Amino acid sequence: MNFPTNIKYTSEHEWIRLEGDEAYVGISDYAQDQLGDIVFVDIPTEGETLAKGDTFGTIEVVKTVSDLFMPVGGEVIEINPNLEDQPELVNKDPYGEGWLIRIKPTDVTDMDDLLDAAAYKQLINE
Question: Distances from the Cα of 95 to the Cαs of 19, 47, 100, in angstroms?
Fold first, then answer.
């Protein structure tokens, strides 16, 4: 299991990595492992401004569909274009090529409430 320390995590298993005034969001290595083979990613919220905790899309695996939640409030400025043809990138590289959305956070201090790698690792091992 991979737990990068340069990102923050939510208790719903999303991650966020700030780069300048934008951030990348995805699901954790733990989440993709628990879900299994991802067959479809549906994110209809490009261009929308959503609040922290709002649903921004879904991930579909063979037997279920799971909601995706915003780790912080912000505008969805890009959906990873590679996921349309290669949803398995989320399984192969959840913190790299398998990112889900790029956002412009409304308030980056919202990230202060999220979990660091050690706290997230403790959460999933409880």
Answer: 14, 23, 10
The residue ranges of DSSP E strands in 38-125, in sequence order, are 38-42, 49-50, 55-61, 65-69, 74-79, 101-105
> 9: part of which helix (H) or strand (E)?
strand 8-9
Contact criterion met (CB below 8 Å) for 68 and 100: yes
Q: Are 9 and 117 in contact (CB under 8 A)?
A: yes
Q: What is the pTM of this model?
A: 0.95
Q: Domains, the chain, ranges and CATH?
A: 8-124 (2.40.50.100)
Is the dihedral angle over the CA atoms 16, 19, 24, 28 positive or is it negative? Answer: negative
Read off the pLDDT of residues 53-86 as tens digits, 9 standing for 90 and up. 999 999 999 889 999 999 999 999 999 999 999 9
Sign of CA dihedral 117, 119, 123, 126: positive
